[in-house]
């Protein structure tokens, strides 16, 4: 059974996401874990389960993929639950900036990078750095995406020390 | 102050092209043999592959954000042989083989810094 879970692949795992599941895992007496499935790590097949407590609190359990024997859906998630799970990950998504402020932020980041001799181009609402790194709104260090760790680290550092004005 | 990139680099990490792991490296062979194959989809079906890769990236991003949320938090590890330990979570390596933790409360004392082998872990919990 264990094999099946870790080998079933991302498309299969996707079908369990945002649902209330029961996971059978491990050998000890506490081998059943329930929770809302936040994600499955595609590298280790580990599950991330969330259980909501009182207002604003949540407990998270990561079940390692190598011990998982069986996963069963107990309850489907509605849109409210999907939003709630999303909000857990992106606690401080400051999408409350208006378009003008966003444009200003984008321009200052672009200018700052150019000042530091980094090749940067505008691509719609995103900034593209040297063709390998993308900065999306609201252009904070954590909004940088790249598959090159070294470039990512350098650009994030640079944006972090950007003077505010 | 710049915060370090929370990825632990161990000897023989990913190949230099940042594509993940080198399946020929001794580390990969010894530790990852049972690791998940990159794709169950044949190369011919490029649309299916693209969907799979998209699903993979969505799932992985969520997992990485989860690891970020876990950093510097008290985490309870449930391990084999009914071992339960508590520690402050630091980082994980990219292939999720080891966790770096601080102040590991073991039955014989507190270990300031430690690496936990993921194969020994059943599950871990923390509060948000």
UniProtKB/TrEMBL annotation, chain A:
Domain AD: 72-165
PROSITE patterns referenced in this protein's UniProt entry, alphabetically: AD (PS52001)
Matches recorded under InterPro entries: AD (IPR047574), Gemin6 (IPR009422), Gemin6_C (IPR046856), Gemin6_Sm-like_dom (IPR046857)
Pfam families: Gemin6, Gemin6_C
Entry-linked CDD domains: Gemin6
GO biological process annotation, one example: spliceosomal complex assembly
Principal location class: cytoplasm
Oligomer status and interactors: Part of the core SMN complex that contains SMN1, GEMIN2/SIP1, DDX20/GEMIN3, GEMIN4, GEMIN5, GEMIN6, GEMIN7, GEMIN8 and STRAP/UNRIP. Part of the SMN-Sm complex that contains SMN1, GEMIN2/SIP1, DDX20/GEMIN3, GEMIN4, GEMIN5, GEMIN6, GEMIN7, GEMIN8, STRAP/UNRIP and the Sm proteins SNRPB, SNRPD1, SNRPD2, SNRPD3, SNRPE, SNRPF and SNRPG. Interacts with GEMIN7; the interaction is direct. Interacts with GEMIN8; the interaction is direct. Interacts with SNRPB, SNRPD2, SNRPD3 and SNRPE; the interaction is direct.
Protein name per the record: Gem-associated protein 6
Organism: Sphaeramia orbicularis
From TrEMBL, chain B:
Biological process per Gene Ontology, one example term: spliceosomal snRNP assembly
InterPro entries: SMN_gemin7 (IPR020338), SUZ-C (IPR024642)
Gene Ontology cellular-component terms listed: SMN-Sm protein complex
Domain SUZ-C: 1-25
Region called Disordered, residue ranges: 1-24
Cross-referenced PROSITE patterns: SUZ_C (PS51938)
Name of the protein in question: SUZ-C domain-containing protein
Lineage, opening ranks: Eukaryota, Metazoa, Chordata, Craniata, Vertebrata
């Amino acid at each position: 059974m264990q094999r099946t879970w870790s080998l079933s692949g991302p498309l299969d795992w996707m079908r369990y996401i945002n649902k209330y599941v029961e996971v059978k895992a491990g050998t000890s007496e506490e081998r059943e874990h329930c929770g809302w499935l936040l994600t499955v790590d595609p590298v280790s097949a580990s599950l991330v389960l969330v259980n909501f407590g009182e207002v604003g609190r949540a407990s998270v359990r990561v079940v390692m993929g190598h011990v998982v024997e069986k996963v069963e859906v107990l309850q489907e998630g509605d849109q409210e639950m999907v939003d709630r799970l999303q909000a857990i990950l992106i606690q401080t998504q400051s999408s409350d900036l208006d378009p003008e402020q966003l444009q200003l932020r984008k321009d200052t980041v672009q200018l700052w990078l150019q000042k530091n001799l980094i090749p940067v181009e505008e691509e719609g609402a995103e900034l593209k750095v040297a063709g390998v790194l993308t900065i999306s709104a609201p252009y904070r260090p954590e909004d940088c995406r790249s598959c090159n760790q070294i470039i990512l680290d350098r650009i994030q550092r640079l944006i972090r020390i950007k003077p505010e004005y | 102050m710049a915060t370090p990139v929370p990825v632990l680099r161990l000897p023989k990490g990913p190949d230099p092209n940042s594509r993940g792991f080198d399946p020929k490296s001794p580390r990969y062979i010894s530790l990852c043999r049972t690791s998940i194959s990159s794709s169950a989809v044949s190369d011919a079906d490029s649309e299916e592959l693209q969907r799979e890769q998209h699903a993979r990236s969505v799932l992985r991003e969520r997992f990485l954000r989860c690891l970020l949320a876990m950093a510097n938090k008290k985490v309870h590890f449930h391990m084999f042989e009914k071992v339960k330990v508590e520690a402050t979570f630091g980082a994980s390596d990219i292939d999720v083989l080891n966790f770096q933790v601080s102040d590991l409360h073991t039955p014989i004392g507190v270990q300031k810094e430690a690496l936990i082998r993921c194969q020994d872990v059943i599950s871990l919990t923390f509060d948000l």
